[in-house]
Design a protein that fits this description.
heterodimer, A: alpha/beta, Rossmann fold, 15 helices, B: mainly alpha, 2 strands
């Protein structure tokens, strides 16, 4: 079909006029920019890319449902590159240059600690989606993953219930494993458990034969594993080939979710316990919808995991707080956030007003031969977040230090 | 005490991994003097070949060809124009390694992939699992093969002639361009074989090469450029040092100790363990 030139001009003029009529407010803010800052390259990319994907899904769903305050969310994605100074730099860029309303980002505690001063300095908001070592409560960060009393302590309770008395601690050499192990040692001392050894390896370490030799030589009842990233693949492959099994010596991990199981190889890790707040198999109506939507967007073979769900939740929780506040202005959103409770895939999640962490249900699961995780224990109800472990007498010295 | 004794075979098996990942580099870096930062990416290419085939025995020759072909293309297209310019080749090959890493990420995704070890490799003898013994066997086979090639075949002897004196070799009628091509092909191919081997013990992902590239250079530098026996001794020495240093301290400190020892060693013998005696004027 041919359209004559005058008609085209007329259409263009009409279009221009339509734009012009509400150009004033529209140009200013018909959309809200939000920053997504995760490692898309480097050693942490294996985990963080999936969190970004889940956050993008949440943004898309919210936009489909009409956006926030009638405005569309526009994600600005940056790569933290598994490098902590890069996280600080990109956070500054998102806040200062892109002027995003909030940032969803980070995975390792090192990246969060690198970003924290940036967000506090510019009084901007960060939503951090991963379980971490606690002992922190920045007024400019919302923590949607578990703190220690919602993951590590329930994990220890589970091991204690199973009659495991002698533990060996294995972790990557940075802030989360070292702090987690301090807590584990204090718990063990108060609960009659014995720590046979405590070993750290650099991030990205792949040679585990010596460490496996140390662990099997010490003959612990169980291993508490805080290794992060690719190191888990090497550790479990080499542990398996050394003949250790989940029956004789279970290895409880707090950084291995559905997404990591494939890379490690189900053969190497099936039967091992993990501690989280959410599994793909968690039975809630919201989770059915989440898993379906995620697979529809990214492929049927994809799995959902705890940090992904926490990232997905973060976008919804922030959107809810913005709706309640009626603005994206940071102080107003912070004021509106406490007490917001949403039915999420993991169940009811409530924002705590005191420390900006979430009430979350703790769950212990066993890795199945099909790569999914089956829940074998849960805390029954959402646990109040306690990042400084004030409610645990044995942890008194930790909070002080 | 048994744990202490166990560290000996563990050290040797760490040495075998180091030797395997460094063997290809003794060709491209040792023989040709190309600071080949893309070596890690060829290891990664070998690992992904193993992932695609999911068959260890088939993957070894396939990875040799795949990684070798990639090396050949790199040599023909770029490196041959930069011989004698070590800094430029360093930057070039580093850039190439970044490109290949991103390519792997786009092709196979950012998460690690699973390479199943064959069932005949489960189990082990004493402290050493069969897959470690397999890697040690592969390293021995690799060294014997390289030694045979360099000293017992016409092509290998011509390669050595080019390394020792390029001009003289050329005037004697050796096609040095072809020898360079072949050397790069073999060196890169060996990296591919090492890539298949490391799938048995470590993660298989786009960043895989990063985990091994530094160790590979350490072995070649400590052993002496272009020296096969130097590389063997250096790899085993570093493996044992690593094993006992980690046993007595921890993994982080062991790395520091290994680096400190190598730095101290290179102060005494800047050329590495063995020195190539050449009549070349340079």
């Amino acid at each position: 079909m041919r359209i004559s030139r005058p008609i085209v001009s007329a259409i263009l003029l009409l279009a221009l006029a339509a734009c012009g009529s509400d150009a004033e407010p529209a140009a200013q803010s018909s959309e809200i920019k939000v920053g997504l800052l995760h490692s898309l390259s480097g050693t942490m990319a294996i985990s963080e890319v999936t969190v970004r994907d889940a956050e993008l899904l949440a943004v898309e769903e919210i936009n489909k449902a009409g956006g926030v305050l009638g405005k569309k969310l526009v994600p600005v994605v940056e790569d933290g590159a598994s490098d902590w100074p890069t996280f600080a730099e990109k956070a500054t860029k998102l806040i200062r240059q892109d002027k995003v309303a909030t940032v969803f980002g980070g995975w390792t505690s090192a990246s969060r600690k690198a970003m924290l001063p940036v967000f506090e300095r510019y009084k901007a908001l960060l939503w951090y989606p991963v379980q971490y070592e606690g002992l922190e409560s920045s007024p400019y960060i919302f923590y949607t993953g578990a703190t220690t009393n919602q993951q590590i302590i329930p994990g220890l309770d589970y091991l204690k219930e199973q009659g495991k008395k002698k533990l060996f601690l294995v972790g990557s050499d940075y802030v989360f494993p070292r702090t987690a192990n301090k807590i584990i040692k204090a718990y063990a001392a108060a609960n009659g458990m014995e720590i046979l050894g405590e070993e750290y390896t650099p991030l990205g370490h792949t040679e585990y034969s010596t460490l496996v030799n140390k662990v099997t030589g010490a003959k612990p009842d169980a291993v508490f594993n805080t290794l992060n990233g690719d190191s888990n693949v090497a550790f479990f492959k080499q542990l398996k080939s050394a003949g250790a099994t989940a029956e004789s010596m279970p290895v409880l991990s707090v950084s291995i979710a559905e997404e990591e199981v494939t890379g490690i190889g189900v053969d190497n890790i099936a039967g091992q316990p993990v501690a989280w707040n959410y599994y793909q198999t968690t039975e809630t109506p919201a989770n059915d919808a989440f898993v379906k939507a995620y697979k529809a967007k990214y492929g049927a073979a994809k799995v959902t995991s705890d940090p992904m769900e926490a990232g997905y939740n973060a976008v919804y929780l922030w959107a809810e707080a913005v709706k309640k506040a009626g603005t994206t202005e940071v102080e107003a959103v912070k004021k509106a956030a406490p007490g917001i409770a949403l039915e999420r895939p993991e169940g009811l999640v409530t924002i705590d007003g005191e420390n900006q962490h979430m009430y979350k249900t703790a769950r212990i699961g066993i890795i199945q031969p099909d790569g999914l995780i089956k829940q074998v224990w849960d805390s029954g109800e959402p646990i109040k977040p306690d990042p400084y472990l004030k409610g645990y007498p044995w942890a008194a010295s930790l909070a002080a230090g | 005490m048994t744990a202490f004794v166990n560290q000996l075979p563990i050290g040797l098996s760490i040495g075998a991994v180091l030797l395997l990942i460094a063997l290809g580099l003794t060709f491209t870096f040792g023989q040709m003097g190309v600071i080949n930062m893309a070596h890690g990416s060829f290891i990664m290419a070998g690992a992904y070949t193993a992932y695609l085939l999911q068959d260890l025995v088939l993957a070894l020759p396939a990875a040799f060809l795949v990684a070798g072909a990639m090396g050949l293309v790199l040599e023909r297209l770029a490196i041959r124009h930069l011989y004698g310019r070590p800094l430029d080749t360093l930057l070039l090959t580093w850039g190439v390694s970044l490109v290949l890493q991103q390519l792997a990420r786009d092709l196979f995704g950012a998460p690690n992939v699973q390479v199943s070890a064959p069932s005949w490799l489960s189990g082990g003898v004493g402290i050493l699992p069969y897959n470690r013994l397999f890697i040690m066997g592969l390293a021995v086979a690799g060294v014997v093969g390289v030694w045979f090639y360099l000293t017992r075949t016409g092509l290998g002897r011509r390669t050595q002639a080019v390394v020792q004196n390029r001009q003289l070799a050329a005037t004697s009628g050796i096609d040095t361009g072809r020898i360079d091509m072949l050397t790069f092909f073999i060196g890169s191919g060996l990296a591919g074989v090492a890539g298949v081997a490391v799938t048995l013990i470590g993660p298989v992902g786009p960043a895989l090469g990063d985990y091994y590239i530094v160790d590979a250079f350490l072995v070649v530098v400590a052993g002496g450029l272009g020296q096969l026996r130097g590389a063997v001794l250096a790899a085993l020495g570093l493996g044992l040092l690593n094993s006992y240093a980690e046993f007595w301290s921890d993994a982080s400190l062991a790395k520091v100790i290994v680096f400190a020892v190598i730095i101290a060693f290179l102060q005494i013998r800047p050329q590495g363990m063995f020195v190539l005696r050449s009549r070349a004027l340079t």
